[in-house]
Amino acid sequence: MQNAYTTEMVFNHEITKSPNHQIQMAPADPLGLYLHIPFCAAICYYCNFNRGLFDEDLKRRYVRALNLEIDRAGDGTSVDSIYFGGGTPSLLEPDEVAHLLDCCRRRFGVTSDAEVTLELNPETATVERMDGLRRAGVNRLSIGVQSFRDEELRRLGRLHSAERAREAVRLARAAGFDNLSIDLMLWLPEQTLADWLASIEEVPILGPDHVSLYLLELYPNAPLREEMARHTWSLAPDEDAAAMYLEALDRLEAAGYVQYELSNVARPGKRCRHNVKYWSDGEWLGFGCGAHSTRHGCRWSNVADTRLYVERLEAGERAIVDHRTLSPGERFGDAVFTGLRLTAGIDLAAIFERYGVEVAAEYGPAIEPYREAGLVVYQGDRLRLTRQGMLLANEVMAVFV
What we know:
Distance between the termini: 19 Å
CATH topology of the domain at 31-279: TIM Barrel
Number of strands: 17
CATH class of the domain at 31-279: Alpha Beta
Strand content: 15-25%
Strand order of the largest sheet: 9-10-8-7-6-5-4-1-11
Number of helices: 16
Shape: globular
């Protein structure tokens, strides 16, 4: 089974068919703002994100640099989502979060109902911090639980225990957060189907509003590879990973959660507005080291090194290291590739209106074997993956590459 349901976005693919695609710009929807916070109290064994160990002095300089970058980029455009990702954004002090949000509001047209998400690790959860984040303007927390089994958390190098994760959810509710998400990881070393479902059974008990289910990816530079070799830990067979995914979705659905994307389920009205922009041909600006932006048919990224990012901003320089205009084919490919991650699939009429591509006419023969196998379906004027198709999403999406 391919890794079909992770959060990695596919950027580096080129569409070679139909070179004369014409893009019609749609009316501008509100932007999303992403703020990257790279600091961690410890490096998890599996992590491959842009992060580093916590340094108080560097953190203070970094927050000032973030404010500078946001201030310089602000143009009054409407914004309806702000997302603090990392790293461990909950290592920021609430007043630092408040200052960053104030800067966003000064320089952009942040809507009154904007979704403001901050990723939080359970070990950083205290009554004071939760209350402070709420007062700062955060209205949605994404809690990195990963597992409700202590032995699995130890294998991943996480600092919290299962009980600490439960307590983080309770503290968040007590602080008044009515929009909570938790992350859980499947296909962990030595994890069985029964182990995984034990974590899933905790979800309806704690009652988060949103759940993200991530398949473990073993990156070449991740310490977990060495840990697995040292302890002779193994992964369950591919078919067990598929069963973990499908059974979890069935149980969460029975508990009132609705799947809306390959890796994400939510209670009605609680989808992550910010992340949906990534999957629905939206636009966003990323601030901080290594952050990516997509706007006006262009894509760019910032320098990844934290100190270099800070030094550039302090010197009055730009942090951008890569900026390019996407070809019509790339933009069409991104729209289809990411849109198929959504359970609603892609709107074929909207694709034609914006990109001038008749998907059924141009790609129909290549899609047909997957339709016959029950992996994709045409539903009205939409094309979407079935749940079985989600297990082979990368293979189906390759039709458009």
